Prior knowledge:
Blueprint: H1 2-21, E1 24-30, E2 33-40, E3 54-55, E4 62-64, E5 99-100, E6 105-106, H2 124-129, H3 138-147, E7 149-155, E8 160-166, E9 172-176, E10 180-182, E11 185-187, E12 193-200, E13 207-213, E14 218-225, E15 235-236
Antiparallel strand pairs: 1-2, 3-4, 4-15, 5-6, 7-8, 8-9, 10-11, 12-13, 13-14
Amino acid sequence: xxxxxxxxxxxxxxxxxxxxxxxxxxxxxxxxxxxxxxxxxxxxxxxxxxxxxxxxxxxxxxxxxxxxxxxxxxxxxxxxxxxxxxxxxxxxxxxxxxxxxxxxxxxxxxxxxxxxxxxxxxxxxxxxxxxxxxxxxxxxxxxxxxxxxxxxxxxxxxxxxxxxxxxxxxxxxxxxxxxxxxxxxxxxxxxxxxxxxxxxxxxxxxxxxxxxxxxxxxxxxxxxxxxxxxxxxxxxx
Length: 237
């Protein structure tokens, strides 16, 4: 295993040096057969350990370079209902973890327990990525909206739609317009972005706060039903 790891690093170093000088062709071997890819621009090795890269935008927290469940900034990643840590096929009140379908009331984060912020074991970013990561608070999402420069991108050739978000220090992240999941159907993919915060709207309702954007609007404190499947962009100290 160590030998394979070392060989991968050597290959990466050799290819990186070559690509820095000019476009090259790469021959890839698998099962005794080879495939040659001509005139490549770059090589990306998939992050098999799913370690999230953090980006310092000059804000109060660092932001993940990708959505939870994604390996590239442009990928949508997984969709999560608010307070759930697993993905599923259907997103509605019947399938929502903290809803009593019969009474249409919340069984947690409600007026009885008074909890308004996600606990660690209900935070998908923490559960998937580890203890240093979490879903951003509403104030952190608001800070991202108010203190950064947002520029809409439409890359029709590659199907990449979303915002480049540039922080006060000049560093930037890309937030794709991944839409959301309602019941078993995707909605507004490529047009809208929905990203959960860790905060409910109120213990007296069934809403939670999130970032919403389209090509013309950006709102860091929007509210929606908690059962919807939204994207998550994690943060860390």
